[in-house]
User: Which sequence fits this backbone?
């Protein structure tokens, strides 16, 4: 009996455990099936990522053709084939003569007659980056050659501005004198001194930005003019060495230029230059510089900031994300790769800051990124350019999602937000105004720009030219392609020639917008190695 009872009990327990085991297998099997199903859905989604439509988009094609012309408006020197801008003539022909240099080329910075090397070099870097990423797009609308010519006009100047290893001329003209005059650059007779940084008056920020511009441009011209490309790269490497060995903020070294393009620091420019030199040379020293040697100290990982002429961190993060996304260099060490991930994560944090609803104090009611009342559009279009570039890296690498605080964004979500910024500039805003001069029927008529505001035959000197600043008549000349400063936080714009806060265009605004439009003008390009 006892034996039977015991035997019956063992049998019952065995059946219970068999049932439990079966249930575990079923549950585990179901979980496995679910995981497998989700995995396959994710894999399928990778191949079903929403992508932009094929074909050229006419409004962006037209806007791009207009945007590139502002570089012609801003040219200094002996003008060649400047038929698009009939009201411009030769100017600045004596620039650099007192230093036995030819500094006649380059671009005037904004609405004045100054050549500021810091923003000019940044204009070149952004324009070169735009060509490298979207040259095929530019070529599709016959603007590639024009963009390359504009870039070379700047780099020709930068080469001459670097006459020896540790000397860089960073400004031509006296801003105090220049801003006391209102006259066309063609008729200006004021003295135009050239100012340099050197070992005793260092400028790591401006020297590094110039190095970045030359390194990026060397890639643009690598195939079409190898000799010129090599010359640019040689200057870039020497300038980076100068900037790194003699560290200092240029606007502190030369206090009398602090009122114009004062620099907030130089570590971002050092990283920016090293990043571009890595892409231009493939030299592991530069990738080690931005990751192991100075990543922790300089890069400010995890704290995204806004891309601008003075803050290159966001640009660095996106540019180095390219390496991480595409895995183009097998020689990168594990530690370097880990730190490249930190750059990418910080770039992702910026994307999330832009994308996450609801609109914050960093967006207008009309949906425009808004950071500062001075030249507000540079932040909108500069960071929208980064959105397009980052989204294309996601497309290329089959990265289906960006995770932002519990919300998933596809690459097309980034692109569509960039589209919203471009369309705002082109007139989809509360003012129903295009902020791109020459585009549409309603754009600023009183742009803060000396040459555009004065008739070609105006016979004026320094002081009596101010009557054109205060004239109530629209500008007689069209500063075509100018992207003005932009709206206030409440989406309003005052079209007044004396409103330099909103109405003055800059070359770097145009470089940003050319890059943004080039990324949007046709479907996403196949991202390739720059080399």
Assistant:
């Amino acid at each position: 009996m006892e034996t039977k009872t015991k035997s019956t009990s063992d049998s019952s327990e065995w059946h219970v455990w068999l049932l439990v085991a079966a249930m575990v297998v079923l549950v585990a099997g179901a979980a496995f099936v679910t995981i497998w199903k989700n995995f396959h859905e994710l894999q399928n989604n990778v191949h079903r990522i929403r992508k932009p439509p094929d074909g050229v988009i006419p409004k962006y094609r037209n806007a791009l053709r207009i945007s590139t012309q502002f570089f012609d408006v801003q040219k200094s020197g002996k003008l060649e084939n400047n038929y698009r801008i009939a009201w411009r003539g030769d100017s600045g022909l004596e620039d650099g003569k007192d230093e036995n240099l030819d500094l006649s080329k380059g671009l005037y910075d904004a609405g004045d007659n100054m050549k500021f090397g810091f923003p000019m070099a940044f204009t070149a870097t952004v324009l070169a980056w735009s060509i490298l990423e979207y040259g095929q797009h530019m070529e599709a609308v016959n603007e590639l050659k024009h963009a390359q010519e504009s870039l070379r006009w700047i780099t020709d100047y930068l080469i001459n501005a670097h006459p020896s290893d540790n000397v860089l001329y960073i400004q031509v003209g006296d801003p105090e004198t220049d801003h006391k005059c209102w006259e066309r650059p063609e008729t200006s007779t004021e003295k135009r001194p050239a100012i340099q940084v050197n070992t005793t008056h260092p400028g790591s920020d401006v020297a590094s930005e110039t190095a970045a511009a030359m390194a990026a441009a060397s890639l643009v011209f690598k195939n079409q003019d190898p000799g010129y490309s090599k010359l640019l790269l040689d200057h870039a490497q020497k300038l980076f060495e100068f900037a790194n060995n003699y560290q200092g903020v240029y606007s502190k070294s030369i206090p009398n230029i602090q009122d114009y393009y004062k620099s907030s620091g130089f570590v971002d420019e050092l990283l920016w230059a090293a990043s571009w030199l890595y892409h231009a040379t493939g030299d592991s020293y530069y990738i080690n510089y931005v990751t192991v040697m100075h990543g922790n100290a300089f890069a400010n990982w995890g704290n995204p900031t806004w891309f601008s002429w003075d803050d290159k961190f966001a640009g660095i993060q996106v540019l180095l994300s390219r390496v991480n996304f595409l895995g183009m260099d097998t020689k990168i060490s594990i530690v370097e790769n880990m730190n490249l991930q930190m750059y990418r994560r910080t770039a992702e944090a910026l994307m999330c800051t832009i994308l996450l609803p609801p609109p914050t104090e960093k967006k207008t009611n009309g949906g425009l990124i808004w950071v500062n009342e001075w030249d507000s559009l540079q932040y909108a279009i500069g960071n929208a350019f980064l959105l397009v570039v980052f989204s294309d890296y996601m497309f290329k690498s089959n990265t289906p999602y960006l995770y932002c605080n519990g919300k998933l964004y596809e690459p097309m979500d980034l692109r569509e937000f960039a589209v919203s910024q471009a369309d705002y500039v082109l007139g989809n805003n509360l003012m129903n105004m295009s902020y791109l001069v020459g585009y549409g029927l309603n754009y600023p008529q009183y742009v803060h720009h000396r040459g555009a505001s004065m008739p070609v035959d105006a016979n004026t000197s320094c002081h009596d030219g101010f009557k054109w600043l205060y004239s109530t008549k629209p500008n007689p000349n069209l500063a075509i392609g100018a992207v003005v400063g932009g709206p206030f936080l409440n989406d309003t714009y005052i079209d007044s020639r004396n409103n330099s806060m909103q109405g003055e265009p800059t070359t770097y605004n145009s470089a940003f917008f050319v890059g943004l439009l080039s990324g949007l003008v046709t479907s996403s390009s196949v991202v390739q190695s720059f080399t």
User: Anything to note?
Assistant: The beta strands are 115-116, 168-172, 194-197, 402-404, 407-409. The radius of gyration is 28 Å. The first strand starts at residue 115 and ends at 116.
